[in-house]
């Protein structure tokens, strides 16, 4: 017998060799139908794998990330089997589950070029195979056996992967006619997969190396019910309508130019206005929390980044070094703001009485992203971070960290991000070479983050190996209006850069001490934050933030003079207003300005001009009736004031 401990602390005995599926069946037949994977002593397993020793378990369904991972990983194998049957000469790279679905990198046989038209046939074959209820069988093999097998069928990509693996830890998974090198876990069989959509094709270099062969990457998503796929397709259509690249163009917020360079956004006047208001909002919050603004250059001497460690860690991902006419003098486009802020700290001697010091900057940095990875504002080569670096004593660390969390809460409230999870990103204990600094400092930093998150009552998940190279961090994972997750806002604790830059303060004991450094960027980058904000709101920003709050539209040219007077009155009352006096029908003007997401639309014709009134429409709500200009101004100011008072708790 084995003792199985459940998440609620309960313990139950089962016969040795019991499977997760059998445990689920013992709880309820309904659960047995819904469970997809199991964790055994913290390791994710197949439901059909026997348990031969006492263990702590947790069962995962579709509602759990671990359950969906097994479902989509199995779906990747199912797609590979379909490809193998349709295109027998296909060679296979890797096929993982991802956040929303799965992909497989493949090399189709000679002369085969897969296109979007082929995806439907692959889907049909997958459904046909799924209905066969093929069992996913786990098979332990030696490294020698694995190499012999995949060499015999000329799967060179699998052979390369096997050569990197440790003997004794290699497994196959087999379903139907397809055998793959894989750690799992997988579903019990293919019949769980009821609905399939292959979404796109892309090119992908083998193992992400531009010097390797370009493979074909096929993306897909699957569900246990057709209804779920139908709902997902509706959601994807909504996502298309909210795409920040589409909405940004319609609202005239930003653009890109190949003449300027890929990944280098150009902010148009309305986009610049939006950014300015976001920056002003954060500056006001930061002033309340004791931050001081600094400005640092767009370039820095290479030695600065060698001291910080960024050159060694990120040199390959940066732009090439800039040389000057002076021999041996080399600069870099700034990849990070923190080394510059360390030098600001070193400007003069510091005392414990000066701390904490909080330096903030909207600092533009540059990193060389591969052209294939660039995507609108979410992945660019030049971006502005809402960066700040706090220097404090070890005793002040937790309090300062918690104050940064408070700032992030203010931002999320202001912009209606109501659902979020905090990810505690820690060092990988099995690969410490990726990081700088002593074990002692890492342990102190990680402990401070965990305790601060607990005291703030944050819903957290812990991810090993996701820390920055110089310290652990707290990342905020936000769910937008249509359920997608984005990483927004980060706070990092760093004992290492103060050591590398020899930062000091004089303590109460009159001795020299090292400050602790906190890196924080609540927005992350202005570019990415604006992209997420556009997609979250669909471009319908809150009134206090939106670039154009009001548009005045003329019914005919006879009311142009009055419309101009209304425009002047509103702009002079600090209401951001534009005029649409085009020679177009009023219906067309309303449709065009609705598309631009302007919150208030004022219609003025001869009657309004005669009566000194305006007809008011609210974006998405329709006609609000007629009112005087003064009444309208009062209404707008009241709405903005209420929004800002709520944000700042005034």
SS content category: alpha+beta
Distance between the termini: 63 Å
Q: Averaging pLDDT over every residue, what do you get?
A: 92
Number of helical segments with 4 or more residues? 20
- Compute the gyration radius: what is it? 29 Å
What is the approximate shape? Answer: globular
- Poorly predicted runs are none
Helix content: 25-40%
Strand-residue proportion: 25-35%
Please state the oligomeric state of the protein chains shown: single chain
Report strand order across the widest sheet: 16-20-21-28-25-24-22-23
- Count every beta strand, where a strand is a DSSP E run of 2 or more residues: 33
Biggest sheet layout: 8 strands, mixed
